[in-house]
Amino acid sequence: MADFDRNVLEFYQLSDPFPTEWPAEKDAASENSDSERELEIKKQKMNRRKSRYQALERAVSNRSSVIQGSEKSVNGVSNLVQKDEPDPLGASDSVVKTLKQLGVPIMDDSRLRNRFLLSSTSFSPALFLSQMHANADTQSLLDGLDVLSKSIDQKSASLKVLVESNFERFVRAKATIDNVYKEMKYRGAEPPSPARARAHSRHASKGSFRNSSGGAALGASPNPLVSPSSDSRKKNALVKESDYGVMGIKTPLLDVSAKAEDVWGPALRGREKEENLKSVSVSLDQYKEYVEASSNIADSIKRKDYEALVEEYGRARKFADEARKLIKDLGVTPPSESQTYQILLAARMWYDVEEQIQLFKREVWRKLTSLHGVSKTQTMAGQPQDQHMELIGLLLELGVEDNPIWVWLLSRYDYLKVKISSASDRSKVEIEVLRRRLANAEKPSPQVVTSHFRNLGRQAVASKPSGLDSPDVIELWEKMLAFLSSLLSMQGILGEVVEFWQTVESFIDGKAQKSLPTGYNGESRDHHRLSQQGTVDLQKGTIELVEMIRASVFEFFAGAPPEDVSLLFSPLPPSPGTPLSAGLSPQNGRDPRFNFDANNLPPPSPRRGESWEKFAFWPPTSNSVSGVHYLSKMLVLVGSGASEMASLAPLSQGDVKQLEMLKTLVGASRERCVTALCAAWNKDAENIKYVEDWKRTKEMGDVTRMPSTFASFEGALLSGMQKILYISEAMTKPGAGDIVLPPPTKLLQMVRSQYVTTLYKALSGMVENAERAVQKADDEWTADLDAPIRAGNERASLSVSVGTVDAGDRNVRMLLTLGNLQALRSQVVPSLNSQFENAFSVKLTDESKTIRDVLGQIDARLFQTYTRPAVEKLRQIIRAGLADPNWAPARPTEVKPYVYEALLSLVLVHTQVSTTAPSLTSQVLSYLLEQTSKELLETLRSRARFDLGALMQATLDVEFVAQTLSQYTTEKASTLQGEVYSMLDAKTDNAARARLQDELPGMREVLKKLRERSRTEFACFKRPRRGQTASNNSNNHNPAALERTATG
């Protein structure tokens, strides 16, 4: 243990550095010390009375503070014990060190260590010898005894020297005290000689003091000094004959008293008046409480000291009852003067008190019924939370005819009923006003609507809901969410209804009344019980409040948008807790858009055939992403609120109809939300094509931001739709599964079909983007669609970024779209299918196959559209070259120009593909090589015969193309080339065939030279290095490409 910890333990006399409870020995020690201190104080007081040497005794007693080892710490705890000391038997220089070596845990327990230290009062000789000298023999113990004896003798000699050296000081102090006493007693005269002389000693001094004082008191011997008349100087001596020094001033005091009697005597001799005043004073003193009762009650009301008020009022009622009893007992007997005083004072007192109490009761009733408007924040800040119980208890103490419990519960019910109705109606009208203004505003373009979808790929939906839609739409969503939260959350109106029923239930069960008083003589005990009819009415009232909340929410989701907004023209209804001055404020905390303005009336809702026009809970022009985000939160409130309402006893214990209505509320709200969301989802899927901005992603250079944005869009909708269908966040409360039922198959099928439909529409839009004719001015794809939501400097920087491509080129758009389709087939769509299956616990077996087929067809069609111009050009070049009459010389030494022309056209294609979508380079050129081989086969097959020159030229042309494009050779291309050679062999004679074998070495040399000369022109077809090949293969490998190539 560290020195610091050890010092702490020693200072506080603890054994454990982290005690869990107060040590019992501390209490015992404190009690003992207190008792010892009290005894010491009493002893000192007795000594103070008995001894004249109090100062000397106190000085001697305080002498211990000078002795080493007896000082006290700041907190008064003695510190007599040293931390360590040598062995008193001389065996060791350190007791602590020796005990540590023997394994005794003295460092952890200061009390145990003190039992081994001789300087401690708790020193145990037996324990010391049993531990320190457990193995000592007789001789060593005898030696230790000698050492201990010498040490004692040495300390005794030191003490003796100390006493001898200070003895003269004690003697001089004693003589000084005696001289002072004699001077005070004998006033400088010589004391009488003692009867007999005694030797000087401390006992003799005490004896002489007793004898002198006692003799003087008893008058044992005549002493002329004692008499005041013998010597005028002795009149102030401290003896009995001189009244202990006050005889000198007694005569002047008597003279002054006589003169005062002469002056003030006549003024004080009004005996009759004195008696009358005395009689009145006695009566007032006797009935003082009667007189003070009214003022005490007024003062208690002013100070709001209700405990004192109840006490004073009870005392006043007691006085009034006593006076009534006195009048009844007297009957016709006339009362005495005292009894008359009592009756008159009691009547006057009771009139004043009752008048004050009645006024106070009316004020308490007003506070009790208007207490509901006080917010929880004000309640917690300034007053107790159960203030109504305090007011009810006060009324019961004062005594009332009406039951304050019933009155408060009834007023609470009325308050909640008005609050539900006013808050619901007002919020719905304000929501409808915002909805109408939004519907009549200018409809945003598809580019602006879809620009919000790009935010999904940058950050999560929940982290920044403000970027999901336009500010006006988000504002309306937030207002709807706030409306439902104020109704259905436990911090809103539903929480107040639940709290109201819990209060009612506590009064019905009699738990809340346990803390309430019974009043004066138990007169308020009848108010503690609610009647049977009252209990039934309160249960029905709770059900009515729940039904009002349910009907309001059901109308909001299932009903059409309200047509009547006349409530907007009326002022806001004041709540019971609203001060009257608040209604006079010009602003009154209200949005100016909801103020009545005859020149700016809310326009009627337009009828354009939009899907959102029949939904009161859907903001016009809202997209599906913001819709699914907020609707999922709304349905959590609906589900949890319905579960809370169903758990209330009046509903859960038999009201089956109301429970079914709550189930209908959840089911209808969910169905309407899914219907509205699917319509918006379908529309957004049609417009998702406008997300395409033809800018490459930073992660994958051969695809645009479209696949990732589409994946985020679909993923957000699937995740939110799962929350809407299952409302899993509302299932935490026990019994919620009986109210929030699983989604019906109809809704699941609706979401399933809508998901597949959105995929088809998104894919169609992507193809439309690629094939659509480019507008010359302000192209809808090339325009920076992020401009409405970005700063100008960011837009400028993006316009020259490396991700920008030439979107005006149709081939470039088709290549990027092909890359996007590859990403969709390989990554996005399988991931979305898995998410759908996991979210809704279904298998998309047929849908997945259909989606794959559609993707394959779209990909193959777009691929054919892109390669068709190149294939047509190759066909024209090959047919024109082979139709040349000079195509086959007698002995060919080079390939024909049409071969170079065809390869150069492929170079252009390679350049475009490799710079736009590198992952498609191998697929496109492999397909074009297949088509070139196929066209060579078809064109050469049209010739009837091949002589040696034609055979050699055809072989050179075909082989040169095959070797130049060997990197892109596929199985199909190799098969076609083999068919060319087989066809050439079939259309020649044996002589040409034999001569060709002789010419083959020369033809190889010619091909080698031709390859060397054309290496620069066709360097793009060169096979890359191994490391580069591996990288390209890892980036470009895609099974879907092989499938598409085979399809093509």
Would you give an account of this structure?
This protein has helices spanning 3-12, 24-50, 54-61, 95-101, 110-114, 125-132, 138-186, 202-218, 247-264, 271-286, 288-303, 306-330, 337-369, 376-382, 387-398, 404-440, 446-451, 471-488, 493-509, 532-558, 624-646, 649-652, 656-687, 706-726, 745-771, 792-799, 810-840, 845-882, 897-916, 921-941, 948-964, 971-986, 990-1013, 1026-1036, 1039-1047. It is mostly helical and 1048 residues long. Helix 16 runs antiparallel to helix 18, helix 25 runs antiparallel to helix 27 and helix 28 (845-882) crosses helix 30 (921-941). The longest helix is centred in the first third of the chain and has 49 residues, at 138-186. It is elongated and about 180 Å long. The two termini are 85 Å apart.
Taking the sheet with the most strands, its summary is: none
In the predicted model, the low-confidence regions spanning at least 5 consecutive residues are 47-79, 195-230, 376-382, 572-589, 776-802, 1027-1048
Total number of helical segments? 35
**Average of pLDDT:** 76
In total, how many beta strands?
Answer: 0
Name the beta content range: under 5%
**How much is the radius of gyration in Å?**
56 Å
Task: Compose a concise summary of this entry.
The protein has 1048 residues and is mainly α.
Question: In terms of topology, how is this protein built?
Answer:
Blueprint: H1 3-12, H2 24-50, H3 54-61, H4 95-101, H5 110-114, H6 125-132, H7 138-186, H8 202-218, H9 247-264, H10 271-286, H11 288-303, H12 306-330, H13 337-369, H14 376-382, H15 387-398, H16 404-440, H17 446-451, H18 471-488, H19 493-509, H20 532-558, H21 624-646, H22 649-652, H23 656-687, H24 706-726, H25 745-771, H26 792-799, H27 810-840, H28 845-882, H29 897-916, H30 921-941, H31 948-964, H32 971-986, H33 990-1013, H34 1026-1036, H35 1039-1047
